[in-house]
Amino acid sequence: MKLITAIVKPFKLDDVREALSEIGVQGITVTDVKGFGRQKGHTELYRGAEYVVDFLPKVKIDVAIPDDLMERTIDAISHSANTGKIGDGKIFVVELEQAIRIRTGESGEEAL
């Protein structure tokens, strides 16, 4: 099993969700986050005062999947979140040691 974490632009969330549903991914967890990478924030003007926005709003998507869905999941996220501009995000993949469904006690891939 793998845990895939993707950081994407907020307006791309629906596209990513639809792409994941199409390949059979059944559950995702979404968190609103802030951060920066190569974008390094930007400057905004508010009521005549200029200020720097260091942390940009992003969406973090966590998906637990069986090993055989990994490549298709990565492709679905990367294609649906891509705008071709800086700040499109990142995808991280880590080994998922165990998953347990609390309601039924199922574990492993059956819990996904």
Count all strands and give the number: 6
| Overall mean pLDDT | 90
Major beta-sheet overview: 4 strands, antiparallel
Residue runs with pLDDT of under 50 for 5 or more positions: none
Q: Fraction of residues in helices?
A: 10-25%
The best one-word shape is elongated
CATH architecture: 2-Layer Sandwich
Radius of gyration: 17 Å
- What string gives the helices and strands in order? EHEEEEHE
CATH topology: Alpha-Beta Plaits
- Please tally the helical runs, counting DSSP H or I stretches of 4 or more residues: 2
Summing up helix and strand content along with how strands pair, one would put the structural category as: alpha+beta
Strand content: 35-45%
Please list the strands of the largest sheet in the order they lie side by side: 2-5-1-6
Gap between N and C termini: 9 Å
Q: Give the count of structural domains.
A: 1
CATH class type: Alpha Beta
What does this structure look like?
The protein has 112 residues and is α+β, with helices and mostly antiparallel strands. The chain contains two helices and six strands, in the order βαββββαβ. The chain has one domain: Alpha-Beta Plaits (2-Layer Sandwich), CATH 3.30.70. The strands form two sheets. A four-stranded antiparallel sheet has the order 2-5-1-6, covered by helices on one side. It has a two-stranded antiparallel sheet with strand order 3-4. Helix 1 packs antiparallel against helix 2. It is elongated.
